[in-house]
Write a structure and sequence with these properties.
The structure holds two protein chains of two kinds. Chain A is built from nine helices and ten strands. Chain A is of the alpha/beta class. In chain A, the strands form two sheets. Chain A has a six-stranded mixed β-sheet, sandwiched between helices. In chain A, strands 2-1-4-5 form a four-stranded antiparallel β-sheet, covered by helices on one side. Chain B is mainly α. Chain B has 14 helices and two strands. Chain B has a two-stranded antiparallel sheet with strand order 1-2. The chains are: A alpha/beta, B mainly alpha. Bound molecules: adenosine-5'-triphosphate and magnesium ion. Adenosine-5'-triphosphate (ATP) binds next to helix 1 of chain A.
């Protein structure tokens, strides 16, 4: 379906040190266009740090990031977002005291190019309501448009987050543990949702739940102590003995706890 | 579905009803205050109300705690006083120059402070405001300890004699209403929506592609300019600018007014400013004990009703935006 070498994002020898401690070491990452790529690894492996590096929330100590053939290593976070790389956060990231509709609308209003207009009536934003409602409906939140985000259940907050991210029509979505802390029902719902929205875009996701990974991921990269331990399709990676030792062990504990 | 839509519709109507009442009270108060309040005192109330509203734009709607807002209030007071008294500018032009200088100062202080977060941001604004205070004490045109005195009020548009208290009052009332409307519009604008999202979750706003630093800086400049407008107007009302206008205690008072009235509410800072200025006025016979009383009120406010007067009222009336 995709040609070899059609990578939307490539990171080379990406490294990040926090005062001598190497949280991420020489990580090479190549994300194929149109795929769902999972980044897995035990706690503290450096997954969130990799996200922070790719979105420039942190500057890499070494290494380079190329997105759609363009070197983005020295860009600012807002510029990276404007190129179409939109991330979510490990802890749910909504605007708690805005309504669900307003949450999505904040993302939608960016394309109007009037976000600095402090003299304009908010009525100009009302033209976005139809589209915002569509996005909410697509994640099953049509009935919650007027609820403040803070009052939504955890699963719905994550769904709202995805709707907000989708509102920017990202080329590359980075999801940091989208099912963390959810009950089985919500996990199923969010997994379906990710599958659904993955059509026509690329997703890089951190995920601890291996059931979700096996259902969604086309490719997996395993991180351990800041290094890439293995990569490839799920079946191959899950049989890798090093991975079994470093990661699956932890995940069995996770499952017990 | 239809039922839930109707409930939402009702609560919107309820909210705009409450807001309409508050607007009516505010406008009525501004129009009629001189009938029952000594005009100079009423003008003082309006100047501080505007100052508090400008401050609230930053703390309440952007989430930035500046501890140096007296710098903008005081600098504009001095500059306006100087250009009116020495350069002979008419009042509107003088107030405009003072406001513009406050905006420029807001650009400088804001640019330096906004790179830092939380308490560091507050400390940098305080430190820079102290430098402005020092300049107020040392510069040749400020009059040092005595301040800048004898600023003539002049004639509005060359016609209306501002030495007549009622004329002056309605001039100040017009400035207050313009400033208040600018703040109201800013809060309820596409820009204001982004500010609120930054207050709510800065990292998320950044990840959506908003240049958070620039939004904060613009909000800071608007807030500084309107604080300056309040200070400039105050210097024309009282016909002097003094070191008190630049003092850190004034920066503290405006925080207090905003918190007491209701942080992040539209009308709260007005109520807070009226309350604090009236208390200072009523209790002035107590001398420096006024500060103790106000301190106690502040403690009670923080412990018992954290949303402030208007914030608690909004909760009782079950509406989110007042
Ligand atoms: N800003 C920081 N300063 C110092 N150390 C950090 C910082 N951010 C992360 N680290 C350290 O880097 C390592 C990797 O952290 P990271 O959050 O990337 O792990 P993770 O793989 O996302 O883990 P988890 O599964 O728990 O989310 C950890 O040891 C962490 O303590
Ligand atoms: Mg993490």
């Amino acid at each position: 379906m995709f040609e070899m070498g059609d990578f939307i994002l490539e990171a080379r020898s990406l490294s990040k040190e926090f005062g001598g401690f190497a949280a991420v070491r020489d990580v090479d990452l190549a994300i194929r266009r149109g795929s769902i790529h999972a980044l897995i690894g035990p706690n503290g492996a450096g997954k969130t740090t990799v996200f922070n590096l790719l979105t420039k929330f942190l500057s890499p100590t070494r290494g380079s990031i190329v997105f759609e053939g363009r070197d983005i290593t020295s860009l600012k976070p807002a510029d990276v977002a404007n190129l179409g790389i939109i991330r979510s956060f490990q802890i749910s990231a909504v605007f708690p005291h805005l309504t669900a509709l307003e949450n999505v609308r904040v993302a939608l209003q960016r394309k109007l190019g009037i976000s600095y207009h402090f003299w304009r009536s908010p009525r100009v934003l009302e033209g976005l309501h139809g589209e915002a409602m569509e996005k909410l409906a697509s994640v099953g939140l049509a009935n919650f448009a007027d609820s403040p985000a803070v009052l939504l259940s955890y699963g719905r907050k994550r769904a709202l987050e995805i709707a907000t991210t989708l509102a920017l029509d990202p080329t590359l979505m980075l999801l940091d543990e989208p099912t963390q802390g959810m009950g089985a029902e919500d996990v199923g719902r969010v997994t379906d949702l990710i599958k659904e929205v993955s059509a026509g875009r690329t997703i890089l996701m951190v995920e601890h739940n291996l059931g979700v990974v096996s259902r969604l991921a086309d490719a997996i990269t395993v991180l351990n102590r800041g290094r890439v331990l293995a990569e490839g399709p799920y079946e191959a990676v899950s049989r890798n003995p090093e991975v079994m030792e470093a990661y699956m062990g932890t995940s069995a504990e996770d499952a017990d706890g | 579905m239809a039922a839930s839509e109707r409930i939402v519709g009702e609560s919107r109507a309820h909210r705009s009803g409450v807001n309409l009442v508050l607007w009516a009270i505010l406008i009525l108060f501004v129009l009629t205050a001189p009938a029952y309040i000594y005009p100079v005192f009423a003008m003082q109330l309006l100047c501080f109300a505007l100052f508090a509203c400008a401050f609230n734009l930053l703390l309440g709607f952007t989430g930035l705690l500046s501890f140096g807002h007296a710098a903008f209030f005081g600098a504009a007071a001095y500059v306006t006083g100087h250009v009116i008294k020495i350069w002979g500018l008419p009042p509107v032009a003088g107030i405009f120059v003072g406001t513009a200088v406050a905006a420029a100062l807001g650009y400088v202080i804001g640019s330096l402070a906004i790179r830092r977060q939380g308490i560091y941001f507050a400390m940098i604004t305080l430190a820079l405001a102290q430098i402005i205070y020092f300049l107020g004490l040392q510069l040749p045109f400020t009059g040092g300890e005595n301040g800048l005195q004898g600023i003539p009020r002049g004639h509005l548009f060359g016609i209306f004699d501002l030495d007549r208290p009622l004329v002056m009052y309605y001039f100040v009332a017009a400035i207050f209403m313009i400033g208040f409307l600018i703040i109201y519009r800013t809060i309820h604008s596409p820009f204001g929506q982004v500010l609120k999202s930054i207050r709510e979750n800065e990292a998320r706003a950044l990840s959506l592609g908003y240049n958070v630093t620039r939004f904060k800086l613009i909000a800071f400049i608007i807030s500084a300019a309107l604080s300056g407008l309040a200070g400039a107007t105050k210097s024309v009302v009282f016909q002097f600018a003094s070191l008190t206008d630049l003092h850190w205690q004034t920066s503290g008072e405006v925080i207090l007014m905003t918190l007491l009235g209701g942080l992040g509410t539209i009308f709260g800072p007005v109520v807070g400013a009226i309350t604090i200025v009236s208390l200072q006025h009523e209790l002035s016979s107590l001398g420096s004990w006024v500060n103790v009383v106000i301190g106690l009120i502040f403690i009670v406010c923080v412990l018992a009703f954290r949303r402030g007067i208007v914030g608690e009222l909004a909760r009782l009336l079950k509406t989110s935006s007042m």
